[in-house]
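Record format v2
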Amino acid sequence: MSDLGALTTPSLLVDRTRVERNVARMGARIAGLGATLRPHVKTHKSIEVGRLQAAAGMRGITVSTLAEARAFAAHGFDDITYAVPIERGKFEAVAQMNAAGVRLAVITDDVTVPGPLGEAARQAGVTVDTWVKVDCGYHRCGVDPEGPSLAELARRIGERTHLRFAGILAHAGHSYQARGPTEILAVARSERDVMVAAAAHLASAGVPVPAVSIGSTPTAMGVDHLTGVHEVRAGNYAFFDVMQVTIGSCTADDCALSVLAAVVHRDPKRGTVILDAGGIALSKDAGIADADGVTHYGRVLDVEGRDLGLRVTSLSQEHGVVHVRDDALLTRLGVGARVRVLVNHSCLTAAQHAEYVVCEGTAIVGRWVNHRGW
Amino acid sequence: MSDLGALTTPSLLVDRTRVERNVARMGARIAGLGATLRPHVKTHKSIEVGRLQAAAGMRGITVSTLAEARAFAAHGFDDITYAVPIERGKFEAVAQMNAAGVRLAVITDDVTVPGPLGEAARQAGVTVDTWVKVDCGYHRCGVDPEGPSLAELARRIGERTHLRFAGILAHAGHSYQARGPTEILAVARSERDVMVAAAAHLASAGVPVPAVSIGSTPTAMGVDHLTGVHEVRAGNYAFFDVMQVTIGSCTADDCALSVLAAVVHRDPKRGTVILDAGGIALSKDAGIADADGVTHYGRVLDVEGRDLGLRVTSLSQEHGVVHVRDDALLTRLGVGARVRVLVNHSCLTAAQHAEYVVCEGTAIVGRWVNHRGW
């Protein structure tokens, strides 16, 4: 054990106690609602966090890259859904992983996919679980839940001897537009109800739906019941972040991820300090505006984690600009001072770093690898 | 040699022919203006690009992280300026690298730094070249070129037995606000003239200035003369990018960096396609608005590099959204189609990838490591 004072800056810090608490709470919550949790590991890409989620009762994982799938499979996670629509360049890798004993399921919303995907599976001698991606209101990907493509796609999958229609799957990304419990609940109900209705519609058209999968952190935190839903694929909740605080999914005390930074410049006349955490260390995700309308790149805390009431307001590659109006604070934040930036969007910031420095309070208790890349 | 069709997506592509041309042109340009070029390798973090720059006549390099300094030093680059203001957490590493035979110079704009920095140098038995960072109009870091701090800081450095006052250094980051040659030239002249005047002011106050260092890609491309300036630290020019096209530093044909991506979703009704290059593969740097006022995350080209007239308009972690109004184009961009995204801000996008796939046309001719981290 050492402490934060000796770390190089910038470094990515994760508070293990908070991760454990976040993970246990979501595990209990989804189990209590009668569904299973298949956490999206794209937020952390960390085997150790995956193991904490496994201990909290998850069933399988969700990934956003084949690199995540390979890394987790190499550590014994053998039930994986790759939740970016599949295309031909990844068919062979998916088939090979299935041939190696990993249940790597895929998603699609395109009628041209099942034919060649099924052929790749046949050649590898495997059956690939294939979900139909449904647009539950986010309007990014997915078929219309009320249109004819849904049944057609499910049938095309079912017709292929080496594909199995796994069910229908959606992500309520529009929950990030919500503010506060009432708006979150409205999106959560819509995500659930659209998908349960789509499953009923398919069943009445003669296409039984093995499973209904939904998920986003705000809706998973806010939904009132999950009748008709089989699994939830939330991910951000392991770390949370300032965006989730603003949405109303969590409090600042739940946020587990911060970047340790050093002050490298102070200008009393302009009332600014510059940190050595810039657009690479923090990511350039401006997230969503705070409740007061200010868009920023993270809140500034002291090393012990106390909020200094400051925000990182602009970034260049290795510089983060913080405006400081308070003279006493400006005096305290001399060149060489350390602060922590509570990150705006943990999924994006985590991916900027090769590893996590694992902390309990200000004590360093370990390092976790971030399995980046594609 | 293979070709782009077999690559996984997303992949970072670099056009070697364009890099060589860009590097040769800047080398000749700065030599012709009578100054030396100390390229900022933060853009590429690549030993191979550094070697191309060395072949084109550079003298030493500039870095934005100690990780870059270590990586380049390990490959024989022994004359390095670390151009982020130094703070106590890095004193020991800097002293150690100097002790190992690398001339690793630092910059500062803070009067509290020379004392303890000089002490760290003394303990390591080395002399550390130390520049005074001057604010030439960008207003990020640096001392006022007309204020009393400049001479005071130069004197404090000169007083330390184990520091050497290396000169004054500035970066005209405000050149990124310029549009077109006239505005670029105005910033370039101001960057040069402010610094030459500051050096004269210091000399008249009894502080000889060994060197004047300036640099940004737009000003290096646009400046009319460099009388009184010793070195130029441009970096982006090795790759250029869409931002530099918009500023007017280069043309689209100079841009060497793109991200190969696959279409994973197409919606004819909404007129959108989704790429598997999102906020991680491209970075979330929205750069500066195009001439038509549109802010975006890169231009979309076909695999051969022809501009399709499309832009990536929004991003999530592994998804990039492209709006396509043309029906024929939408038909062509089916799921599985490949495109290249000409990147908005090459420094930020490059740092999102562990390696470059080096191309000549559509042929793959090598791989270069990106030395990321801190």
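The first strand of chain B starts at residue 2 and ends at 3.
Residues 180-204 of chain B form the longest helix (25 residues).
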